[in-house]
Amino acid sequence: MDPISPLEQALHAARALVLADLVAGQVAEADVVSLVEESIVQRRWWVEQWPDGVAFVAGLVAQDVQDALLERYGRWPLCPVCGSGDPHALDVEPELGPDPHWVCHKAGVRVASVGSLGSAAGGAVSS
Predict the structure, then answer these.
(1) How many structural domains are present in the chain?
(2) β-bridge mates for residue 78, sequence order
(3) Buried/exposed 29-50: b ≥16 CB within 10 Å, e otherwise
(4) pLDDT one digit per residue (tens) for the chain, 127 residues
(5) Is residue 126 part of a domain?
């Protein structure tokens, strides 16, 4: 059996992290999971063109899915930190870098690492 390449390891990890956040937000329906798969295909090509970007895949997939959900359904993930005012989505930081995490720019806080939204909001981050 051939070992799994670093690219495939990064893509599988990114898929798992983003799916965990979608499950935490109770939005992991089949059509939403398809958005993750579409992003994985695009990011596979992207990393093949720029191999040094392999460490950035999880954050990019999270951003891709967030953008696709905004176009089709609305903001995701909603901020679990701010209890008042207009509902707003978290952002991924760094935009292009390793160790991606969800942040609330309104409150100026890091909410959770990508893949850990469930624990940050007690398992109930909604869209």
Answers:
(1) 1
(2) 89
(3) eeebbebbeebbeebeeebeee
(4) 778 899 999 999 999 999 999 999 999 999 999 999 999 999 999 999 999 999 999 999 999 999 999 988 899 999 999 877 788 999 999 989 999 999 999 999 999 999 999 987 654 444 3
(5) no
